[in-house]
């Protein structure tokens, strides 16, 4: 009997911890996206100060392209992590439904929980791309300044 209660508690808590972790990652992703957006605004203001008829420097264009890639990677990470949270919530509802006798099929629970894990994993891949892009840019800046 005690092992049954422990099993029910473990089963109910696993998705809740996944949801809390996903929310923490979403917070990190959106904070980084906010910082990139601020840098895009800075580049845009600098571009607006360029006299009419002249083109922005190639360095500014490269920097803007770099910021676009980082923004895209972070947006993908946010979308995937949000989808992971959605799938986790559906899994929790399925578990609660099973507890009150309105059981969803095991296959449905499996697919939603697997979707949550796969989406979170893919959001990590997108975030890794953004981190690598930021690190490469930082290293290039240090190299140009002669400090690396």
TrEMBL record:
It comes from the Bacteria. It holds the Pfam family DUF2721. Keywords: Membrane, Transmembrane, Transmembrane helix. The chain crosses the membrane at residues 12-31, 72-97, 109-139. This is DUF2721 domain-containing protein. It comes from Shinella pollutisoli.
């Amino acid at each position: 009997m005690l092992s049954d209660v422990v099993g029910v508690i473990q089963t109910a808590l696993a998705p809740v911890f996944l949801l809390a972790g996903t929310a923490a990652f979403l917070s990190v992703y959106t904070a980084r996206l906010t910082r990139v957006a601020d840098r895009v605004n800075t580049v845009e203001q600098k571009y607006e100060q360029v006299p009419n008829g002249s083109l922005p420097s190639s360095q500014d264009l490269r920097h803007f392209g770099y910021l676009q890639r980082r923004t895209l990677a972070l947006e993908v990470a946010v979308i995937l992590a949000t989808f992971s949270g959605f799938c986790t919530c559906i899994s929790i509802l399925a578990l609660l439904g099973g507890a009150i006798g309105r059981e969803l099929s095991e296959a449905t629970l499996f697919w939603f929980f697997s979707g949550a894990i796969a989406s979170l994993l893919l959001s990590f891949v997108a975030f890794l791309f953004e981190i690598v892009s930021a690190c490469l840019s930082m290293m290039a800046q240090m190299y140009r300044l002669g400090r690396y």
